[in-house]
Structure formats: structure tokens, C-alpha cells
Amino acid sequence: MSLFLESIKILNGEIVLPELHQKRVNSTFSHFGISDNVNLEEISDGIRLPGEGLFKLRIIYGLDQSYNFEIIPYTSPKISDFLLVENDEIDYTFKSADRKELEVMKSKANGAEIIIVKNSRLTDTSYSNLLFLKDNVWFTPESFLLNGVQRQHLLHSGKIRETDITMDTLKYFSHFKLINSMNDFDDALVYPLSRIRNLS
Fold first, then answer.
1. What pLDDT, in 10s, does the model give residues 168-180?
2. Do 3-73 and 82-195 share a fold?
3. Do you know which Gene3D superfamilies this protein is assigned to (predicted)?
4. Model confidence pLDDT, tens digit, residues 47-97
């Protein structure tokens, strides 16, 4: 049975962006022709959430509405460098709990975080969406693998714009950020493009 994953930010006892997480769950069930789904609000209401600090609520669920969860303290990973990795076949449209292909790609990167290139277009890292800076405007690749909740939120709020970013046009950007449900726009570290190890 296919299993899917939601990683939800808990900040000082509050669930962050719950509507977007539920929308993604609903879309997953709908894609597979199932009208009933997992209700994240009911799950979180039945959990004693930590009152202070930053935590990740990690829910793994199946299309039969079974689920399990864990709450873990969260700190952003420290990344020293990045590696462009080409994979024209990868598909991560749904947030699957099966991350084997991503893990295999990352295991070959000699400790670097991978930036996945599909059909010569920038997509995501192994765990986040990307933002790139040009002329004081932050852009996100329209060729994403997974349309993350933070990405959707930032586009809707007008903080970022979507554009086509290719291997040829990447040089016109100066810096980049990694965003996901746990790392929002203001908290995400800013890296110079020079941190990409194999950027030509």
C-alpha cells in the first residue's frame, strides 16, 4: 500500500498553515478517486501539542485512512555545499513516504545537499523547494517536483514569483534559499550561488 507524508510545523503550540496541508491531503485522495480522507484537524485535536518551541508533527498516512504520527523537536539542517544532480525521470508529485530514489541520489553527493535538475530545469532539493534571487526579487522554479505548502503560501502572498530557471539561466541569479513547511521565508538561510559545488 502506498504511504504518504505530511510534515507540519508546530510553533509555540500552534499548527502552521493547516489549511494548505489539508488541501494537499485532499488532493492526494482525490487523485486516487477516494472521496473520504484523513482529517488533519481531528488528528491534531487529539494530540497534546508542545506549548513552547519549534517542533515537527510528522504524519504518515495511507489511502485506507490509517495513519501514525510523531512529534519531534526541529532544528534546520546545517548545509555547507550543494551539488547539481540531473534526473530526467524523477517524479515526486505527491509527498510520498517512500523517499528511496531521493536518498540514493543524495548518498552519491559526498555529503552535499542535492539540487535536482530535470530536463535541464531546476526543481527542488532532496527535502525543500528553492528560491533564487535576481534584482532584489525572489523567484521559485516553475518546474518544481513538489508544490510545497510554504511555496504556495509565499506565491499567494506575493513575496515570491514563479519563473522558468534552467541550467543556462541560473548564472543570472546571485543567491538562493531553501524553503519548506518547517523553514519559512524569513528564517531560511541565504546562500551565494558559489556554494553550488559543480556550478560551471
1. 999 999 999 999 9
2. no
3. 3.30.470.10, D-amino Acid Aminotransferase, subunit A, domain 2
4. 999 999 999 999 999 999 999 999 999 998 889 999 999 999 999 999 999
Is it true that domain 82-195 has CATH number 3.40.190.10? Answer: no
DSSP the chain: --EEEEEEEEETTEESSHHHHHHHHHHHHHHTT-S----HHHHHHTS---SSSEEEEEEEEETTS-EEEEEEE--PPP---EEEEE-SS---SS-BS--HHHHHHHHTSTTPEEEEEETTEEEEESS-EEEEEETTEEEEETT-SS--HHHHHHHHHTSSEEE--BTTTGGG--EEEEEBTTB-TTTSPEEEGGGBTT--
What architecture does CATH give domain 3-73? 2-Layer Sandwich (3.30)
pTM of the model: 0.94
